[in-house]
Amino acid sequence: MTRISIGRLLAEATQRLDAAGIEQPGREARLLLAQALGTDMAGLIRLGREALAESDRFEALLARRCQREPMAFLLGSCGFWSLDLAVSEETLIPRADSEAVIEAVLAAIPDRSRPLRVLDFGTGTGCLLLAVLSEYPAATGFGIDLSPGAAALARRNAASNGLGERAAFLCGSWDAAIDMTADLVLSNPPYIPEADLPSLMPEVRLFEPARALDGGGDGLTAYRALVPALHRLLAPNGLAVFEFGIGQAPAIASLATEAGLDVRAVRADLGGVDRAITLGWREKA
């Protein structure tokens, strides 16, 4: 067991993270040390830079981060909307960009008391479904994912956030496991064009599941399955809200038109990039 001052640990770790190409290396060094010490950032400050700390666990975490393993995997969880969600290599790590989907839902359905029936395809950690349920206390929903590990993780996240009684999770390929209609259909499907996968940052390319990223040749394979399926999944006054990649809105709108749906809204993420599309049944003239 090696003990060294917190100040020295942070200085050396910051240099190593910077050399590994990590943005904000000082902040990440503090997060990793807090994790190693079983405290939080405030607790780390209270200890002070002169305090001694056992460095072996910190070294193990630091080595993994220098190999570009995502910080969320090292910490074991991440925040999304108002939730704290466990993460694993079975799923994508929830990102702030996806909160545009939740904002789109809130804008489209202002009545928070509605007893919505919700379906979430490619649920992953369950982040979209659980965030919606947290905002609509009378809503219930199903999350569907191809991965049994993802479905199990989402189930645990529902329980840990007090939503387990209103959410259920199933394994299946898109709508094949579902025979019901919903008031709201959600999805953040794979939408990265196959040719773009090698250029993704190492944290994504090397550690997150390719099946949740690979959208086929043009990135639209999943939408070609999901949008036509809305014909049987979507209730008469229902809505679908999908996340999508840069520049994909016109193609998804075309698929919607073919399926008898209209685009009700397109919403940007915090970076100003169009990210969520809301679809509903075509209104009669």
Automatic annotation (TrEMBL):
A GO BP annotation: methylation
UniProt: substrate binding residues: 188-191
Top enzyme class: transferase
PROSITE patterns (alphabetical): N6_MTASE (PS00092)
Catalytic reactions of this protein: L-glutaminyl-[peptide chain release factor] + S-adenosyl-L-methionine = N(5)-methyl-L-glutaminyl-[peptide chain release factor] + S-adenosyl-L-homocysteine + H(+)
Pfam families in alphabetical order: MTS, PrmC_N
Keyword Disulfide bond: no
Residue ranges occupied by any Methyltransferase small domain in the UniProt entry: 110-196
Keywords, ordered alphabetically: Methyltransferase, S-adenosyl-L-methionine, Transferase
All copies of domain Release factor glutamine methyltransferase N-terminal, residue ranges: 9-76
Entry EC number(s): 2.1.1.297
Binding-site residues for S-adenosyl-L-methionine, renumbered to this chain: 122-126, 145, 174, 188
GO molecular function: peptide chain release factor N(5)-glutamine methyltransferase activity
Family in the record: Belongs to the protein N5-glutamine methyltransferase family. PrmC subfamily.
UniProt xrefs under HAMAP family: RF_methyltr_PrmC
Function in brief: Methylates the class 1 translation termination release factors RF1/PrfA and RF2/PrfB on the glutamine residue of the universally conserved GGQ motif.
Protein name: Release factor glutamine methyltransferase
Source taxonomy: Bacteria, Pseudomonadati, Pseudomonadota, Alphaproteobacteria, Acetobacterales
